[in-house]
Amino acid sequence: MQLKKTLLQPSILLVALFFFGKAYTQSDKLGTWEVLNGEYYLNNKWNLWAEGQLRSQKVYKDFYYHELKGGVNYKLNKSTIFLLGVGQYGTYSNGGNFKSPVLSHELRLWEQLTLVNNIGRIKIEHRYRVEQRWVNNDYKNRFRYRLNPLIPINKRTIEKGTVFASVYDEIFLTNKGPFFERNRVFAGAGYMISNPLTLLIGCVRQFDYSLSNPGSKKDFIQTTLFFRINQGHNTLPTHPSSMD
C-alpha cells in the first residue's frame, strides 16, 4: 500500500501538469521559460550556485532570450541567507530563434537578502535584492522584492518524495520615473525526485511598465530543474526557487 501511494503521488502531479500545459498552449501569446539551477555545497554555511535560462515567444518556438549567472550563498542560519551574484543576459529580435540583431545585452551584479519564516507547514520566503545593471552600456539601478510561500502537500517538510505548491509575487522598482518597472506572478507545483533533484513546473505572468508603454503582459510555462551536488553538507531546510 505504501509503495502504491509513493508511486501515485508523482504520477498525479505529472498528469495535472500535463493538462495544465495543454490548456494554456491554445494561446499563441504563451511562451516557454526553461531554467536549470545548480548548487555545490562547500559546507553547511557556504555554497556556490549557477543558473541558465532560455525563453521563447511561443511554446518551444521563437527563442528570444537567454541568461547565464552564478555566485555564492552564505546561510547564516535556517532563516537568513545572503547572496552575491553576477550574470549576463541577451535579448534577441522577434520572429525566429535567437534572431539578429541583438536588442539588448546586459551585465548585472546584485546583492540579495532572503528571510524565511514558517506558519505551520507553510514556508514563506521574503527576498530583497539590489541590482547594478549595464544594459547596452547604459548603467541602471533596480530594486526587487519577492514574496514566495511554499507549501508541502504530502509531507511536513520538503524532502525526497514531497509534492509541493509554490506561488510568488515579485515587484521591480527603479530609482528613476516612473519607478515601478515590472510585476511578476507565478503559480506552480513541484516534486522532489531525490535529494539532489527537484522539478518545478508552473505558469508565470509578467507585466512590464514604461513611459512609452503603460502596461504589457506576457505568459510563460516555466519548467525548472534543480540539482544539488555534495548536499550531504547541507543541514538546513530546502526551499527550491529560481534565482531570477
Brief summary of the model shown:
With 244 residues, this protein is mainly β.
Structure description:
The protein has 244 residues and is mainly beta. It has a single domain (2-233), classed as Beta Barrel (Porin), CATH 2.40.160. Helices cover 9% and strands 64% of the residues. The protein has 1 helix and 11 strands. It has an 11-stranded mixed barrel. It starts with a helix and ends in a 15-residue tail after the last strand.
Total beta-strand segments: 11
If classified by CATH, what would the architecture be?
Answer: Beta Barrel
The backbone outline, from C-alpha atoms, is: globular
Distance between the termini: 40 Å
Number of discrete domains: 1
Q: How many helices does DSSP assign?
A: 1
The CATH C-level class name: Mainly Beta
Largest sheet: 11 strands, mixed, barrel
The strand line-up of the biggest sheet is 1-2-3-4-5-6-7-8-9-10-11
Structural descriptors:
244 residues, mainly beta, 11 strands, Porin, eleven-stranded mixed beta barrel, globular
SSE blueprint and pairings:
Layout: H1 2-24, E1 30-41, E2 46-58, E3 61-77, E4 80-93, E5 99-119, E6 122-135, E7 138-152, E8 163-173, E9 180-192, E10 197-208, E11 216-229
Parallel strand pairs: 1-11
Antiparallel strand pairs: 1-2, 2-3, 3-4, 4-5, 5-6, 6-7, 7-8, 8-9, 9-10, 10-11
